[in-house]
């Protein structure tokens, strides 16, 4: 009788340990709105942008992980409205990024998190000069940092973050809202 009891306790303990293991894989997407400031063709300009991001994150443990993703942005409402008045139009950027991820659990599924890493973004724009337009693409390495709050329940989560990116051609910041699947 005690042998069966010991085996039952051992199996229960192992199943609890397996259940307590946090998901290691996270796939998500973010959408947001922000601003951009850029220096191109000896001109400085600013505008607003729609932001989007898709990513995969591998969690080493519950608090630390590494994230690879692709982020893109294009003209916002204000930029579209004033584009007939400016020399630089049709501004967008996009490219891959690789970031470290750290989180601090608050309880009830909530956590604060931060991430920072390296980016390789291509800034695309049209430059109007003397009635002629020319399209440009400029790529460079840069950096990115983000901080936010996330909530997760089982395999689904939501997040709200502020994201800042900078490279040699531009800097951009904005609020992003996203969803994620954990498995």
TrEMBL record:
<dbReference type="InterPro" id="IPR027385">
    <property type="entry name" value="Beta-barrel_OMP"/>
</dbReference>
<keyword id="KW-0732">Signal</keyword>
<feature type="signal peptide">
    <location>
        <begin position="1"/>
        <end position="20"/>
    </location>
</feature>
<feature type="domain" description="Outer membrane protein beta-barrel">
    <location>
        <begin position="6"/>
        <end position="183"/>
    </location>
</feature>
<dbReference type="Pfam" id="PF13505">
    <property type="entry name" value="OMP_b-brl"/>
</dbReference>
<dbReference type="InterPro" id="IPR011250">
    <property type="entry name" value="OMP/PagP_B-barrel"/>
</dbReference>
<protein>
    <submittedName>
        <fullName>Porin family protein</fullName>
    </submittedName>
</protein>
């Amino acid at each position: 009788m005690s042998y069966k009891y010991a085996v039952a306790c051992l199996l229960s303990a192992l199943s609890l340990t397996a259940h307590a293991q946090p998901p290691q894989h996270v796939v998500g997407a973010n959408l947001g709105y922000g601003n951009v400031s850029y220096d191109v063709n000896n001109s400085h300009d600013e505008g607003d942008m729609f932001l989007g991001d898709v990513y995969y994150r591998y969690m080493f443990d519950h608090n630390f992980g590494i994230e690879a993703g692709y982020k893109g942005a294009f003209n916002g409402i204000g930029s579209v409205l004033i584009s007939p008045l400016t020399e630089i139009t049709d501004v967008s950027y996009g490219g891959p990024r690789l970031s470290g991820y750290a989180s601090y659990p608050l309880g009830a599924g909530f956590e604060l998190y931060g991430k920072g890493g390296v980016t390789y973004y291509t800034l695309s724009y049209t430059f109007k000069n003397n009635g002629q337009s020319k399209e440009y693409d400029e790529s460079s390495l840069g950096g990115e940092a983000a901080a936010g709050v996330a909530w997760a329940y089982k395999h689904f989560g939501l997040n709200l973050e502020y994201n800042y990116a900078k490279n040699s051609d531009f800097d951009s910041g904005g609020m992003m809202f996203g969803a994620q699947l954990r498995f």
